[in-house]
Each structure stands twice: as C-alpha cells, then as structure tokens.
Amino acid sequence: MKSSFFMGIDIGVGTSKGVIINEEEEIVAYHILPSGFNYKLAAQKLLGELLGKAGLTMENLSYTVATGQGSPSVNFANEEVTDIVCCARGINKVFPSVRTVIDLGEQTSRVIHVDESGRVANFMISEKCAGGSGYILRVVANVLRVKLEDLGPLSLKSEKPVSFTTRCAVFAETEIVSMVAEGFQKEDIVAGIHKALADKIFDLINRIGLKEPCAIVGGGGCDTGFVKRLKEKLGKEILIPPQPQIIMALGAAIIGKKKFLSG
Amino acid sequence: MYFAGIDIGSTFTKVVVVDSNGNIVSKIEVPTRAEQRKLANKVMVEALNKSNLSLDEIAYIVATGYGRFNVPFADRQVTELTCHARGINSIFPSVKTAIDIGGQDSKGLKVKDGKLVNFVTNDKCAAGTGRFLEVMADLLNLKVEDLGKISLKSTKKVKISSICTVFARYEVMTKISENIPIEDVIAGLHYAIADRIIRMVSRIGIEPDVAVTGGVAKNVGVIRAIEDLLGYKVLVPEDPLITGALGAAIIGKNIVEEALKRGEVIKRGPRRLEEVTFYW
Fold first, then answer.
1. Residue B251, pLDDT score
2. Among A144, A156, B103, B253, which is disulfide-ready with B3 (CB 3.0 to 4.6 Å)?
C-alpha cells in the first residue's frame, strides 16, 4: 500500500515554516525561510523546497494544513487551522508533559495552556505592541549591526545588562543609539533588551498563570540570551524543543493526519 | 521689565520673551540636539539679540521641558505641565481641556483659572506622539510637515488597525503595495493618532473648549481628525509650539510681580551664560 504523508505550513510575519510527517508522525523533512512581503510567493517557495528535501511530490501528500498570519495565502492547503491550536498540538508531540507553552513570534507573543491530550486549555496573546514581541530583537540586531542569531551568544557574555527607560520598540531604538554613543558595550545593550522583553513576557504569563512544566517555541526559543533572562525571571526551568520554530507547522501536520485518517 | 521662558522639549527647543503686559517680544524655535546646555545658551543669546535686550534686562527666566535642568542661567525650573496650563490660559482663556502632542510624548491637561487641575501623559509608547508620524513620513519618503496638506486630498481614508507604530508601519507598507492612494493612507494615520490621543485624554474627561498644541498641532489633517472624532471644533494657537515656553515666561512674570507686591527681593539663579560661538 502506498504510504501517506502530511504537511503543515506555518506562514508567520517574519518566517515561514513547513514540516512533512509520515503516518507514524515522524518528521520526514522541515524547512524554514523568510516570509518577505508576499505570503503567496513564500508559501509556493516553501512547498517546492520542502518537497525537494523530502524527495516527494504533491501526489504523495494526503492532507495539508496551513496556519499562521499568512495561512489564507496557502492556496494548496486542504484546511486552515489557527496557530494556537497548532502550537498546542505540536508541543504535545515533542514534550507530552508540557502544560504551558510560550511562543515568542515576530509580531505576536502567546502563552498557551495545553492539556494532556494536546488541546488548548487557555491562552493569552500580546499582539498590540512590538516591545513585547520578537520584533524588538530585530531592532536591536539592526542598530548594533549584529546577526539575529548572534544576539543570544553575545547577550550571555554580559555581566551588567543596561536598563531601558522604555518598553516601546520605537523609543528603544533611539535609546540604543544613544547608548552606543555613550560607549555602552554591545553585549550589555543586548542583554538589557532581553531582560526588558523577559519582563514583558513574564507579565503576559502572569495573566493566565504558569502551569509546569513549561516550554518555549517560536523564534524566541532560538535566542539563548532571551531564554536565560526569562528563566531568571520565572525562577523555573524552561524546555526548548530541538527546532523551536517549527512546532506550529508540526502541529498543523499532525492535525492534518488526524483529519485525514478520521475521514 | 521683560521675562523669558525656555522650553527644552525632546524634539524642539523654544524661547519666548514677554514684556510686563505679557505680550510676546520675541520667540525662537530650533530643533533640540545633544549638548543641551550649549544649545540653551545659544538660543537664549539669539532671543536676546532678536528682542534687542541684554541678559540683565530679563527680570526672570523660567526653564521647562524635559531638558529644563540643562539651562544654567535659569532662575527657576517649572514642570512642563504647569507651564502648558499657564500658556494655554494666556492664549485662550476659555480652554478647559488642552491636548499637547509633542515629538516624543503627548499630554492631556484640565485647566481651571489658569491652573492645572488634572492631567494624563504618555511617554511610554510612540503611538499617539509626533514620533508615530515621523516614522510614517520616513517610510513614505515625505516630509512630516507635508503630511497634513496631502491628507486633505483624501476621499476615502483607510482604517489602520494596529496601535503600535511598528505594526502600523507594516500595515502602511501593505496598503501602499495594494496601490491604495497615499492620501487615503495618510488620512488613516491621522485618524489613528487622533483616536489614540482622544482615548487617552478621555480618562480625565474632555470638556470644551479644547485646544491642541505641540508640533503635531501644525498638522491640519490631525486637527481635522480630532475635530471629526470629538464632533466639534478645537482651538489651535497661531504658533502651537511655544505654549510651554510662553507659560514659563508668564510664570516668571507672576513670580516677580508677587515679590514686588510683597516688597521682597527677587531671588535669581547664578545666570551663567557661557561662551557659545565656539560650538556652532
């Protein structure tokens, strides 16, 4: 019998992620690329590259679920599912014990309570302010001329993080420029931003409470500096999946598989 | 006798000199830069030259604004809220609610008999401040002072749903890529900032007459949006930037008048006006 494959596509504001799984829910291939300004184009490109990595064609795919901000642009998907549901499903696959998942995305931060069956029990979203999202990391990387992926290691070197008077991403940019002019070290500035962001996420977590154990996903999970500050603030351990960015796409693929098999 | 008020704001530094009747003798507006002390000296010298006065002829100098402690020749520092209340009362005595939209902050003031009775401020978030419009002008490659005029051509303003300046910027990029006329996008931005400010000032209650001051008050598009949302006309001073500096000068005048009435000696600061020509 021909084996079936299932695809999850997560078109985020910053990056687009795709995962293909088999019937055993094992990851066959995954791919990440920048979303750019045209979600449709990003989705098409992601599809091509992902299928290439997996060595599959469209015919091998039994069901595709799209999620994320740009999910309506995924015209080859069988269905759209909200990112919160996909996130809960995905983390439940990787860490079945996790009860709180923190997602730090480019534009939106979410805290989701997950039950033992991988369903959403409660959630809280912050999407109104760039100061509480991954965007602010892009700002600091840009001003300091540091690569986004280098922020974490740089931040870990800091012994005295600067403190910011503002939580606004726009005003923080100005403040960073003056700090550079005043001769502050890059690592202290980055660590300061990580701390400020951890404070904001901490506030968000407190609005629904923390149920242990907790995990972090999304681009923020890749930033070791931010994770360190959040751990300090929470006073708790935080689990990090091997690929924090693809958890929603994984969840989408699993949801697709369940839909397909249940007919 | 003459009195001076100097207001060092985040974006502009303003000086106003008034005579003993409270009439404006001269006024100066320059962009605020780093090294505010030197800037303060420079603008004070300019204001004195413009009014043909020497420093000794100024009976009292009051400094205000966030840079007020960087004015070495000031006799007293007074908060910008108090100065704004006094300034707006001297321009428009009928005003009960003053809205000031500055470069990096915005405030709402309730004024009664020239005194501040309640206020609300925002300096935490760029939305609802001049910075919001600066970011957008930069993105659209336009001058911030041209936004108002351009928006008047709009026939169908767009709805900007983001509050955050950063996210609104993304929204504007999307709208522009959808070929929506630029005037409709700008008009939408003016409503966004107007809405944000009105929501904030509503917390202390908006009571007419309402005046709008600060650099953003020069933007006719924002003023129209505020009037549309409030449902009535607002008052805008001929020169909306100098309200705080004018209030500071008038507060200085009152201090001197009170002291003279009581026969007291006027306590002045050290009045150090350093050599400034070197720096510019």
1. 95
2. B253
